[in-house]
Amino acid sequence: MPERQAERLTVALPKGRTLGETVALFRRGGMDLSEAIREESRRLAIDLKREGLRFIIVRPQDIPTYVEYGAADLGVVGKDVLLEQERDVYEPLDLKIGACRIVVAEPEARVGRQATHLRVATKYPRITERYFAGKGQQVEVIKLYGSIELAPLTGLADRIVDLVDTGATLREHGLVEVEEIARATARLIANRASLKTKYARISAIVEALRRAVNGEETGR
Question: Model-level pTM?
């Protein structure tokens, strides 16, 4: 038993809209925690003792921190979070779920106007700064934590950089997408030390999920 406990892997999964897709993907990969989540929906830690796995459910923005510092061996997080945080983690697999895009948008009435000084509101200040710096364009970045679409409507900012799925929310607020910065999907990430010390187990999980992503049912 002590030997099995030492080999247990901890996997950080994201709260929110992609949790269902993530759980379904792990089930197809032979790691079924769906019943445990249904029965105890408020639990933040779920053990699959037979498989030697513990799943923790945390905010997506916190997952790279858990993985980088070794509190979790593996994690599932959007590429947008990875691009913003630039954490020291290994990224072995694109899970191809939770697809969305990081875009620049502005009010429809402003499209085509030139400005010498732009204020850009965003939840992604690093991505925004890198993007505009790469274009040789100086901007003032305003960090917000929610309701980014309100910034141009209230005069706080000229443009926004935000994550979009269908673009419906932009349209509802009279905003138009003018540039695409990046496309983002959920990624499997791994702690670099765990990858060395638990290589066989992590490799088996990566392969099982790879097969699940490709539509191959597997039973681990």
Answer: 0.88
